[in-house]
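We treat protein structure as text, and this decision shapes the records that our systems exchange. The tokens are whole numbers drawn from a learned vocabulary of local backbone shapes. Below, we set out a record of this kind in full and without editing:
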Amino acid sequence: MDRLIEPSVPTEISLVPQTAGWWVLGALLACGLAYTAWRWWHHWQSNAYRRAALGDLARAGEDPAYIATVLRRTALAAFPRSEVAGLAGAQWVAFLQATGEFDPDAAPALLRGPYALGVDSAPLHAAAESWVRSHRRPA
């Protein structure tokens, strides 16, 4: 037993990459993650008006005048004022149908609802919510 040699303790292995390729790959991954986070944040911020409109629609209940106001405000936030502000009647409905999923069956409630009593505004509420969720801003 006296002639046994005590084994030496191996040196610690570094967890830091030794080659430049790993540093480059790490930098590319960090840049990719930063870009993805920035795009997500930009998307989230650019849809703030949409989230606000959905909240307003939830509070609107069955009030067709308020639903029409929310639709108009949302369209003004998403599209240039020159395209939206002058639209009324059939042109307004055509705009809503062309830019998103707006049910044409809800058009009478949109056009007459704010001025008439006893209008069934449930289809208008559903169509407005669908349009707010589905409309696309110009590129």
Residues 48-134 form one domain. The chain has two domains: 17-46, 48-134. The mean pLDDT is 90. The longest helix spans residues 20-46.
